[in-house]
Design a protein that fits this description.
Blueprint (H helix, E strand, L loop, with lengths): L3 H15 L4 H4 L41 H4 L7 E5 L5 H10 L4 E6 L2 H14 L4 E5 L12 E7 L8 H11 E15 L4 H4 L2 H5 L6 E2 H10 L3 E11 L3 H4 L5 H10 L2 E10 L3
Parallel strand pairs: 1-2, 1-4, 2-3, 4-5, 5-6
Antiparallel strand pairs: 5-8, 7-8
């Protein structure tokens, strides 16, 4: 298994490369990369953002696994933080809800993504959307200053999820809440899939069991944890066969391991 620092460097490298690609290029592979499964001509994770208010095509790289802003109960004037903000897709949708009196802060550890997001914000003339280079395990945000946290298919990429949720708890105001879309598992993945760097960057190998994921949230101090949406992800056989044998694939299918996109809500007690 790679170390935490190795995982972070791999994710930075992968998403740094993705930042220079179009949505169409990213959707030609399972994990937005150029080498992990390029024969697959569709995205197995992403959902359609195009009908949402605030949608900015240049910020949509097709990398998410849900629509957390739809469920986040964001209000006008709120301060919202988007974890793993990429090119700014969710941040700009959130900005359309908070309005001129609110504020949106995007955090990403990939310099190329921050550069792309800042360029998008500058073109749009948004003064109340800010993108900060930083680590989700140590966020560059003051304690107790945020109303709502959103994130889209990013927490599963973070090696220390306990620390990431503890930091989410820290930055929220008492009574604040999050709505996070992420990938979770029901059942154990084959070893070669679970340890694959390519599939880790594609949000699969780093996913937790759903019960463990929800327990991590509760142990961070959050209350009223609720799954707002759940969708099974069907990983094409041709992707899996790059990492496991045909016999292992048959066993994997027989055991009916489930890979799911979920959107989870929880709040910091007042």
């Amino acid at each position: 298994m790679p170390t935490d620092s190795e995982v972070k460097e791999m994710v930075k490298e992968k998403y740094g490369a993705i930042a220079g690609q179009s949505k169409q290029q990213n959707q030609s592979s399972c994990c937005g990369g150029t080498d992990c499964c390029s024969s697959v001509e569709f995205s197995v994770m992403a959902e359609d953002y195009t009908k949402l208010n605030g949608y900015v095509a240049d910020a949509d790289l097709g990398l998410g696994c849900g629509l957390p802003t739809e469920f986040a109960q964001i209000k006008s004037g709120n301060t919202v933080v988007d974890l793993g903000s990429g090119a700014g897709n969710d941040a700009f949708v959130a900005r359309s809800i908070v309005g001129e009196t609110g504020k949106v802060i995007g955090i990403d550890m990939t310099e190329a993504m921050i550069g792309k997001a800042r360029a998008n914000a500058a073109k749009l003339g948004f003064a109340n959307v800010e993108f900060r280079l930083g680590d989700i395990e140590e966020m560059p945000v003051e304690t107790g200053t945020v109303d709502v946290v959103v994130s889209n298919c990013v927490m599963n990429l973070v090696p220390n999820k306990k620390r990431a949720f503890a930091e989410t708890f820290r930055i929220l105001k008492p009574g604040g809440h999050f709505s996070i879309s992420d990938i979770v598992l029901r059942g154990e993945l084959p070893e070669n899939v679970r340890t694959s760097a390519a599939l880790y960057a594609g949000c699969i190998a780093g996913a937790q069991q759903i019960d463990e994921y929800l327990r991590t949230i509760a142990e961070a101090g959050f209350a009223d944890g609720t799954i707002q949406k759940e969708r099974e992800i069907d990983i094409p056989n041709e992707i899996l066969l790059k990492h496991i044998s045909l016999e292992e694939l048959r066993e994997y299918k027989r055991r009916k391991v489930g890979i799911y996109s979920i959107t989870v809500y929880a709040k910091k007690p007042a």
